[in-house]
């Protein structure tokens, strides 16, 4: 299964926020660290905020921060909420139904594969994937 760039960037933003030294970060910093367009990240951050993963802090020292502890953010939830579709083949799309769909077993197999994929992601939290926070901070140029 392949994630969209939107979901990939969402996970990167959450990892960045999880290892930010004071728990607060800014889109400009994230954009620079990952070499991702600031405009694209604004859309990603807005989605993460709407879905309850990030919150904004207004004011002079403002920015973004996790809406809840990293240990409470399940990667499977992030992926489900950020992906538009898990359609793996044309038979998943009603408007493009394949002629053999009624007798073909592929759709069921692919559906089980997606469910297994998501079940595995449900066993992992943001805290798990950002556990090496010192190394991540260094790579993201947080270290002094």
Automatic annotation (TrEMBL):
A Pfam family per the record? Rrf2
Q: Any idea which GO molecular function terms this record carries?
A: DNA binding; DNA-binding transcription factor activity
GO CC annotation: cytosol
* Keyword field: DNA-binding
Entry's InterPro entries? Tscrpt_reg_Rrf2, WH-like_DNA-bd_sf, WH_DNA-bd_sf
> Which superkingdom does the taxonomy of this entry point to?
Bacteria
PANTHER family reported for this sequence: HTH-TYPE TRANSCRIPTIONAL REPRESSOR NSRR, WINGED HELIX-TURN-HELIX TRANSCRIPTIONAL REGULATOR, RRF2 FAMILY
Under which name does UniProt file this protein? Rrf2 family transcriptional regulator
